[in-house]
Amino acid sequence: MLSEIKQGTFVEEKKTLFKDFAPKWLKLYGNRGNLKPGTIRVRRHEIDKLLPYFAYIKMKDVTTNMYQEALDDLIGKYAYNTVKGINRTGRMIFKKAIELEVIKRDPTEFTSIKKPMKTIEELEENQIPKYMEKEELYLFLETAKKQGLEMDYLAFLILSYTGMRIGELVCLKWNDINFKENSIRIIKTYYNEKNNTVEFSLELPKTQGSIRTIVVEDMIMEELKKHRTAQKKVIKRLGDAYYNEGFIFGKSERHPGYPMLIKTVANRMKRLLKTAGLNQELTPHSLRHTHTSLLAEAGVGLEEIMDRLGHVEDETTRLIYLHVTEELKREASQKFGQLMRSLH
């Protein structure tokens, strides 16, 4: 301590508890600007995962060994990527504590997450995300067309034919549609933490690459025109009671004009899957994977698919693409073999 005082590096550590410092850090973190509410929510959730280990311990008393033991325990409870996120938050908290001279030593510095080895059974399991084959997609869309609720067919048609995210879909506005160019512009996404129809916000997309324009089929434009005509009648009938902000998927009853909840779209899809006798574990995001697989099957390159989906890099998309193209290569090889055998 004396040498630190002489060198001017002495820091008098505070007696702040982890449970008291973490919320202060979160507030400072949130004031950085350009952060989505969802990001703040994730960080708060990750703090909650650290509290059982450090809540009533003074920041200065958290040791490297204690932090490592917490990581080791967490990896036994949660997925590797989840623990990575928790650790990222923990590191930021302790780094800020050093910056604010609450502590003088970072207990997270020499810690690591031990990535669990996969079992043979896990390696043998199919790791490809769930998606529909083209015949299943056709059945699903036909079911939505004939037995779906209001806007079901249009919503699932667009999700299937564009691969857009559900949060991008529900906040589409009419000014995002270019009927002359047959294109849909993606410049925003929907956020609604409490699933309260009227308490939503429009955020910037997930990444810069997510801002894009998607060229679509004539049939989608025709369905959009039909829906616009029907929506205009609802607006005329309801007048000022309609929240007329230009949302394509604006509700026609109970808070009319407000965008459909993401949860509503997911529930409606489950209903249609059950009706069609299809896998009920599929979700609206599965339609994004389906779009990827069918583009790959049609011979579209990985880079073009990534661009259409709004990805710069995505392991899931790459995995589906490689799976589908590998199947095509196998079929091509079999066809060649059959052709040669037919000569005998």
Automatic annotation (TrEMBL):
Domain of life: Bacteria
Keyword DNA-binding belongs to the record: yes
Keywords assigned by UniProt, alphabetized: DNA integration, DNA recombination, DNA-binding
UniProt record similarity statement: Belongs to the 'phage' integrase family.
Single GO term (MF): DNA binding
Organism: Cerasibacillus terrae
GO biological process entries: DNA integration; DNA recombination
Domain Tyr recombinase span(s) in chain numbering: 127-334
Alphabetical list of InterPro entries matching this protein: DNA_brk_join_enz, Integrase-like_cat_sf, Integrase_catalytic, Integrase_recombinase_N, Integrase_SAM-like_N, Tyrosine_recombinase_XerCD
Name this protein carries in UniProt: Site-specific integrase
